[in-house]
Amino acid sequence: MNMIEEAARKIESMEVRGAARIARFAAETLKEYAKSVKTNFDEEMRRASERLMNTRPTAVSLFNAINYVMSYSGESDEEKRESLIKRAEEFIEWVDTAREKIGRIGAKRIMDGSTVMTHCNSSAALSVIKHAFDEGKDIRVIATESRPRHQGYLTTKELADYGIDVTLIVDSAVRYFMKEVDVVVVGADTITVNGALINKIGTSQIALAAKEARVPFMVAAETYKFSPKTLLGELVVIEERDAREVIDGELLDHPKVTVRNPAFDVTPRDYIDLIITEIGAIPPEMAYIVIRDHLGYREFGGEEITLSPEHYD
Description:
Blueprint: H1 2-12, H2 19-36, H3 41-53, H4 60-69, H5 77-107, E1 115-118, H6 123-134, E2 140-144, H7 151-161, E3 165-169, H8 174-177, E4 183-186, E5 190-191, E6 197-200, H9 203-213, E7 217-220, H10 228-231, H11 250-253, E8 264-267, E9 274-277, E10 280-282, H12 287-294
Parallel strand pairs: 1-2, 1-4, 2-3, 4-7, 7-9
Antiparallel strand pairs: 5-6, 6-8, 9-10
Helix pairs in contact: 1-2, 2-3, 2-4, 2-5, 5-6
Protein name: Ribose 1,5-bisphosphate isomerase
Catalytic activity: alpha-D-ribose 1,5-bisphosphate = D-ribulose 1,5-bisphosphate
Keywords: Carbohydrate metabolism, Isomerase
């Protein structure tokens, strides 16, 4: 299990971060681990998948990736291994092709001369922005720093290195700069059955400011970020991380001070104009249909539907 523990550590420490990257990394890890398992294939893979599943409770992409890979079949251990590897490779292809399609679809919603605001570091949102730039559109980006882990620094560097003009702002300046913005594009960690968005903390405040200013608010989200579990009534767990990400020193140990560090917040569907997926641009109200027709889960052999990437072909 050394390989699995190392992978889990990388996810928990955010060495591997971002919903799509985490999902892809989990599929790759299970694929490589399956190659090394000599006996008790089912039990070893179950233990490995459960360890990875528990690393980031809010990231439904991780849940969907693991459940897709673990829905393998076969009689012998070798047949099961081949099936799992094939499913892992299918999911990895799903991740790679979905991002490209989202970029092409979303770019059509960005007009020439636009100022785009984005938050955190979403590969899907960046794909939309880059495709718009590649189409020759004159755009600039306002990126939040995205405290406390400062993922916005990664976004700023990536876009600037790509040749796009970027302005980096502190998170609390979002409303101040919203008057300069033509469209907001963010990523997603989870889309619920009612069309709500769970994303990096601060997203809901940006959506509120955008709605107040009548600025379109778009979400770039692969369909594997939609949550089948919410269809069955389960609530999304909002992860709270170590207070030391926010502050250190005397205040942290002060008996009268409590520091809380939620990693995500919830943006109601009423604040979302459009969700850009690899199967098209949809209103948030269509989340139920995406989950019903394209997704499902079975927790390690339990009852259920089938998570399928067939629509990416």
